[in-house]
Structure formats: C-alpha cells, structure tokens
Amino acid sequence: MHHHSVLSLSLALSLAGCFDPGSTLVVTEENGSTGGPSSGSGGPTGSPADASTSTSPGSGPTTAPNPESTSGPESSTGPDSSPDTTDDSADPTTGGDSDDTSGGADDTSSSSGQPDSDSDACVQDCAGIACGVDPVCNLECPEQCSGSAECAEDQTYCGIRLGYPDFLGSDGEVVGDIMFGHRVTVPFGTTLKAIGVLAGGAGAEVQMAVYTDVGGPQTRLRQTGEVVLASGSNEIAVPDTDLPAGDYWIMLHTEGLTLLGRTLPGDNDYEFAYVFATYPPDGSESFPLTMTGDQIVADHRYNLFIVVED
After folding, report:
1. Which domains are present in the chain?
2. Residues 156/251, Cβ–Cβ less than 8 Å
C-alpha cells in the first residue's frame, strides 16, 4: 500500500515536472507533509527560520558571520543557508554606527592633547618694554633703538653715552682725595640715567656727580652713591634727572689710588677741572652742592661719561 502511494505520487510529480525521479520523496502518514531532497544544495528546504538552524547531518547550526572578523571569507552550506544579519550601517572597526563621529576619522581633536598650530602662536607681552625682546616669546618688540642708541639692561629706555665712554688708549693712576672731571656737551634736551667711568682694573671706592657749567663746575644736579669700581665699564644708575641742552661737568671723587682709562702719555692738552678734597666717611655725600675752589688746567682726558635717554 505504501509503495503504491509512493510510486503513484512520484509518477505524478515527475509528469508534472516538479520532482526528480533520482531523488527519494519521504511521505509521512501522520501529517502528510513532505521534506526536501535528502541531498543537494539547490533551493531552500524550508522557511528562513528553519534555514538558520537546519543543515546537513553532523554540522552545527549556521550562525551569522561576525562583522568584526577579518580572518577570512565567510563559509556557508548554501547561498541562502543563513539570513544576512550584517548591519550595513555598522562600522566593523568600532562596532558602532558609521554616522557616529565621536571617535572616527572626522574627529579633529588631537589624540595627543596638544593644541593645534593656531593656538600655538605666542602672544608677545611688550608692556613696559621700550626696546629689546619680550620675556614671553623672546621676540623683538615693535619699538627698538635707533642710531647709536642702545637698549638699557632693564629695557626701559634707549640710552646714548655722552662724553668719553670708549677706551682712550691708556690707563693712568689717579691719587685719592681728589675731585676732578671734564666738560661734556648735551646736544638735546633729555633725561640723565647713569654716570659712568672706564676703569683699568678693580680700584678703590669712588663717587660721581654731574654739575652745571658756569665757567667750570657750579651746581650739583645729581650724584651717585659709593661704588667700588670693577675693571672695565662701570655705569652707576641715578634717579631720572632732566637735562636741558647745554654744557655740564662730569666729576669723580676717589677714596684712594685708582687706575682709570685715559689718553696716551703726552696727549694731555685737555680741559681738566680738579680740587683736592678729603673723601668723606662711609654714607656721607662726597660732593658739595656748590663747587668752590676748583681749578681748570690742561691735562689728560679720562674715560668719564654720562648715559642719557634717546
């Protein structure tokens, strides 16, 4: 009875073009349902839900490929053996949505945490600086000294040295307890910043001053404190003092024997004012407010000078 049913049904399906006579059609009497061919990899053998778990005997269930796996091509028992569960919008390198820019290539923040080149630009701070470079960027400030003027050490002004700041060719000893100096012309109204001398070696203590000129040193305008000279140029700062254009006297008072720069031997036909005066005790002013008893003679020129603001 069963063989006849199988043969008749097979013959009917074969004549209808729906069945391959070389395959076996299984018929169950319980529910009359049919299964697919026992072998082959043609079309689907059931609904997509069945295809995701039914494979040939001995193999495990087919699973959707891991989108993060890059070890090789996907394997499958058939073109439709498993539904495609890959999300086209997923980024396989991050597992996130490709539209997410929080960690992707569109993120322009620096991974090192360093600012971009625009924010690296140094902002100069030239406040209170008249010349030289700023302390922040180490770049020149817009205002700079011109001509023979030089930037002061504290960068608050451009200074010009008037008198005899350059080495005159020789060194000469000056005895102690004498005030002496030279006349200097200031060609423009300016501000006195410092009084200087060029020493041939470390010497005794000195004080310096600037006087008005009335046929010789007359009225003291400014004097320094006590200074022990160092070899080379010594510039002693003084409080700002207005100097109208005109002639002035630069004076120096020595405590003891001092080696100073001066003209060569025999080159001694220069105006020279002096007066012998005991060097004062420590802390006392060396120069009188009004100079008296001085004499003007011809002698060597010494490296005395003043520094004024340009």
Report:
1. 123-156 (no CATH), 160-309 (2.60.120)
2. no
